[in-house]
Write a structure and sequence with these properties.
heterodimer; A: mainly alpha; MetI-like fold; 11 helices; about 0% strand; B: alpha/beta; four-stranded antiparallel β-sheet; about 35% helix
């Protein structure tokens, strides 16, 4: 259906301003696409002219043909699906567990104070150091990867959400109390909606962090997944496979990020 | 006129890491039914503590606080509280903000309460904004919404904690008039806290002057103008005299 054109009478200055805005927007998108195309073009050109060694740096055409090869061998989908599955499960579990811990710590100030140093230590601990232990605890494969993913995201989720909860304006809490709100009402009607923008930020951070967890987990021990493919490619010196996996990772991570971003728009409304 | 609120020799101490602080020392005053009373005093003297005690958010160390013949209890349902800022929840519409207290007290399905909320919105020119978000309203309108949010709970006593201090001067004068008119036409009893003597004078029937901390009552001053709105009272011949008197007490 055709949109009805608005009948507008802009002043000359207004029309000029709007035109300038439109042109600015056009150039931003133009350069965003241009940088990508120039990068791909220069990479391919340098590889073709052997200014860079395609064995070490691959090239866009070699990456595309590697992806097609992997797809035709029916392996690609298994690797993509394994990584995607582990990341999504890890992402959901870490976000949910971190959120629940944050709620519990908001609820009990005493518990929060007791556990504060532990949270700080756990946050600064490089979780990859726990890798060997994770394999002992849950075995190798998908389970270990999901646990790694959860460990990486859960503490940062807890800390970010807890900070958002406790930074709620004290006067607003007092207002709720003056209306005789119970603690659960203060949480659900004030603290939680007030922390929604932070929750969306946490979702966006967790998209990136959960991919880090998945790839780390797959490096440690796995039989499938893009992390496995990167490891495998480097071991048999087929760096095209490594680069192809990285490109696929970029696409998947960006896809997940865009799935989360509608929440941000909704929260900002 | 009947006393609605009575403070009888109320003292209040609180503990800090450094020491015990005496915030109020034997404070005694009354607020009469349907009157507008104001607490003035140097900043930090304990005015807001008095409001928190009245609202039952704090418990006095000694003395008694009586509202309508009964002692104040924790989270007393007979009090309405209006803060320095409007504290409207940005994620709620104006209507949802107004029925916030009703929701908390599980009265939001009561037809009588909802009708009261609608009538107040209509009466004070906010009905057309009921589906808007707070950021779409001016500072003055937001304060009116905050007042209506308190009034729908039908409190016996309204506590106003410097509700105009966050507004610019012109808006402040206008909102003073609006709030005063609403409180008077709804026949509510109000206790205002302010450090602005002109504001106190233009709105009050009685001004309770407090000393610096620990607060004691220095003077209960009955204010009488020939009537009119707060803005008109500011032009009254006696306004300057009252102002000077209060100023001397505060110095």
């Amino acid at each position: 259906m055709l949109k009805k054109k608005k009948n507008v009478n802009y002043s000359k200055a207004r029309a000029q301003y709007l035109k300038k805005q439109k042109i600015n927007k056009f150039w931003i998108i133009f350069w965003q696409i241009a940088i990508f195309l120039i990068f791909i073009g220069v990479w391919q050109l340098f590889a073709d002219l052997e200014i860079i060694d395609p064995f070490f740096f691959s090239s866009p055409s070699r990456i595309v043909s590697t992806i097609i090869d992997l797809a035709s061998q029916n392996n690609l989908w298994i690797h993509i699906w394994t990584s995607l599955y582990e990341t999504i499960i890890g992402f959901i579990l870490a976000t949910a567990i971190g959120f629940v811990i944050a709620v519990v710590l908001w609820w009990s100030e005493k518990l929060r104070k007791i556990l504060e140093p532990y949270l700080i230590i756990l946050n600064s601990l490089p979780k990859i150091a726990l890798g060997p232990m994770i394999i002992f605890w849950v075995g190798s494969g998908t389970g270990a990867t999901i646990v790694m993913c959860v460990l990486i995201c859960v503490i940062i989720t807890t800390i970010s959400m807890l900070n958002a909860f406790i930074s709620c304006d004290n006067d607003k809490i007092l207002l709720m109390k003056s209306m005789h709100a119970k603690k659960y009402q203060i949480f659900f009607k004030l603290v939680l909606p007030n922390a929604l923008p932070e929750f969306v930020s946490v979702l966006k951070i967790n998209v990136g962090m959960s991919w880090v967890g998945t790839i780390m987990g797959e490096y440690l021990s796995s039989k499938a997944g893009l992390g496995y493919l990167i490891n495998y490619g480097s071991q048999i010196l087929k760096l095209d496979i490594v680069m192809a996996s990285i490109v696929l990772l970029c696409i998947l991570a960006a896809g997940m990020y865009f799935l989360v971003s509608p929440f941000e728009k909704r929260v900002k409304k | 006129m009947k006393n609605l609120l009575e403070f009888n020799n109320v003292s209040y101490f609180y503990q800090t890491k450094e020491s015990e602080v005496n915030a109020l020392d034997n404070v005694t005053f009354t607020v009469e039914e349907k009157s507008f009373s104001t607490l003035v005093g140097p900043s930090g003297c304990g005015k807001t503590t008095i409001l928190s005690l009245t609202a039952g958010l704090l418990t006095p160390s000694s003395g008694s606080i009586i509202l309508d013949g009964k002692p104040i209890t924790k989270n007393d349902g007979r009090i309405g509280y209006m803060f320095q800022r409007d504290h409207l929840f940005e994620w709620r519409t104006i209507w949802q903000n107004i029925i916030l207290g009703l929701e908390i007290q599980k009265k939001h399905k009561s037809a009588q309460k909802l009708e009261l909320a609608e009538n107040l919105l209509k009466k004070y020119d906010l009905y057309n904004f009921k589906n808007k978000k707070p950021r779409q309203l001016s500072g003055g309108m937001r304060q009116r919404v905050a007042l209506i949010r308190t009034l729908v709970l039908e409190p016996a006593l309204l506590l106003l904690d410097e509700p105009f201090s966050a507004l610019d001067y012109q808006t402040r004068l206008k909102v003073c008039d609006d709030v005063y008119e609403i409180i008077k036409s709804e026949q509510k009893t109000a206790l205002l806290v302010t450090h602005d003597i002109s504001e106190a004078l233009s709105m009050s029937d009685k001004i309770i002057i407090l000393s610096k901390r620990p607060a004691t009552v220095k003077e209960n001053m009955i204010i009488s103008f020939s009537g009119g709105t707060p803005l008109q009272k500011r032009e009254d011949d006696n306004f300057g005299n009252y102002f000077e008197k209060i100023w001397r007490f505060l110095c």
